[in-house]
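TICKET: design request
STATUS: open
ATTACHED STRUCTURE:
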């Protein structure tokens, strides 16, 4: 499996961006796909997760502003980010969880494959 993330950019506070993650060699529908972002300390912070069966989970900090979705026909996972805040500025990664890990897991160590990051910068 390979992941290709795109869609980052520079936007003013209150604006929107849509990230995409194309998955080649997609695995079964029970696998969790996640979006993470990098903290200033270099750790990966959970943002949102989805299964190909469309169950979802969100970090409290983005709930109500971000929407994760998946297009099974295109093997693509999206992260629609609305009402962006300067605190959302980060390098965003998509990732595929290991099999048999808890569904919609928020633990980055449960993810086995990572795409390259895409930079999101929100100006105040």
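STATUS: resolved
RESOLUTION: sequence designed for all positions
ATTACHED SEQUENCE:
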């Amino acid at each position: 499996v390979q992941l290709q993330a795109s869609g980052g950019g520079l936007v003013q506070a209150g604006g929107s961006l849509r990230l995409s993650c194309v998955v080649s060699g997609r695995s079964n529908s029970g696998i969790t796909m996640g979006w993470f972002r990098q903290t200033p300390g270099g750790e990966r912070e959970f943002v949102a997760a989805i299964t190909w069966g469309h169950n979802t989970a969100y970090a409290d900090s983005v709930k109500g502003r971000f929407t994760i979705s998946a297009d099974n026909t295109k093997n693509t996972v999206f992260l629609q980010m609305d009402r962006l805040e300067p605190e959302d500025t980060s390098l965003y990664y998509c990732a595929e969880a290991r099999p048999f890990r808890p569904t919609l897991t928020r633990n980055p160590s449960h993810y086995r494959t990572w795409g390259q990051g895409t930079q999101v910068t929100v100006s105040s």
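CLOSING REMARK: The radius of gyration is 13 Å. The CA atoms of residues 87 and 122 lie 8 Å apart.
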